[in-house]
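Q: Got a minute? One more chain.
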Amino acid sequence: MQRLLEIMARLRDPDGGCPWDLAQTFETILPHTIEEAYEVADAIQRGEISELRDELGDLLFQIVFYAQLASENGAFDFDDIASGISEKMVRRHPHVFGDEQVAGVAQQSEAWERHKAAERKSRNAGVQPSELDGVALALPALIRAEKLQKRAAKVGFDWSSVAGPMAKIGEELAEIEAELSAQPEPERLRDEMGDLLFSCVNLARHLGVDAESALRQANAKFDGRFRALETHVENRGDAVSGLSCDQLDVIWEKVKKEIDQK
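A: Always. Here it is, folded:
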């Protein structure tokens, strides 16, 4: 760890450091951090443990980069980050490091949320509190939607059964159809599509399905099937762009069956 910190400091050294690293700021490396986090998730989902080690290293380097930038500004350093998370973990696990007792995962999750809520209240003293405080704006939209819904559900603002979100999806689809039957305005269509997607996340939550993971899996499924379709078309001497939608749909159904039977 110390060697990695020294490497980072050397890269940022104005006297002989790396020009690219010297040009970076918190804002410019943010997209790289998000990308590295997704590459960690990708390695886990593909079961590539050796790749996971490398991807975790890349993600750790991002944290070291932020620590170096903050240290140069006199704000904090890597030790402060490590100390802060250590104190937080001890504080949020009084059943491990203290005398509290918990009777399982569910009770621990409730206690965890109470600790987080108390910390948010302490940080935002003098400001009107909200159950939605702390749900980061930068989260992927599906993840943030689910977190917002869970927070609202904690205080009773939720459907009592899966029938609620299912009906809501039908309602949102009808509103999109109504927009399309008139002169659709792009802004209105975007608004209605947002409502529909939010409702789909709500349904997934009630079904116990993680919406982000489900959509990621659907993306992977489409990717595999479309590549198989391309191979099928190429093997018969055609090009995808040269076939009609109906022709492609026939091949698509054939490819789906072949993949599903494997």
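A: Residues 211-235 form the longest helix (25 residues).
Q: Perfect, thanks.
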